[in-house]
Amino acid sequence: MLNRRHIRIKVMQSLYAFKGHESDDLAKDERFLMHSLDSMLDLYLSILALLTELHKKSKDYNEKLQKKLLGSDSDRNPNTKFQDNLLLSIISDNKMLQDIIAKRKLNFWDLDFEYVDILFKAIKNSELYEDYINDTEEANLKRDKQFIIDVYTEIIAPNDKLFDYFEDKKLTWVDDFPVVNTVLLKVLRKVKLTSSDTKLLPDLYKDEDDKEFAKDLFKKTVLNNSKFVEEISKRTTNWDSERLASLDGLLLKMALCEFQKFPSIPHKVTINEYLEIAKEYSTPKSSLFINGILDKIVKEYQSKDLFPKAGRGLM
Prior knowledge:
Radius of gyration: 25 Å
Shape: elongated
Mean pLDDT: 89
């Protein structure tokens, strides 16, 4: 689920929270980072819990229609395509998934049911829903998957109230939301009818190396903070101290850490990653500032054969 850029962003946020200085309790700060990374999986699971609740809502809605004393023929025989949706059924019936959601206490939609009601109403009033229930094609997983993917992409994910809700629930989820959405859609597209082939729980890390990268980047940046500050200061005499004390200075320290402590990561990969992060999280001029400093440092290292790299694509 996590790619290296998102790991870098999480490390940046954790370092920023602790001002990037040598810590009195590095283990505690590292736990904060790992919890922040793990919370991304919580967001993913909470969205699957939301889909489960929308599935339940469809069943409850149809049952209420059938019990209406003065109901019409359409009320007594409601269209059950949504409640019979094969993808939603697979999600709702996946015991392992539902057990993990319950264990991590992520099905908070029972208490915050108004968001389920808002989304269900939006779905029912959409053209997507109208086309879906009126489609005479025999039910099949491919059709049902596409409907839910379209509903999620066009109705659920863009909903401002849901976005605000997630932001209030956990501030870091704002940055996680786009990545989680991409992963979720990828997983849903791969769902099969055979339960043994259905993997609804993606791995948080691609491999153990990525998890260690997160820990090492955080720890080594913190432990070498003073050294990195001194090295950056020598090369930034024409820049004001406020810029160096801001997020730009933190990104420079993280880049220096990768230059010096991660020999398998090429210089150009490090520079490109931090330029992209600066464009998204810092000021409009930040990427130019960071690029100029890092380019100068790399050229100096290479001329003196300092901190040689072992990977491909070296500058």
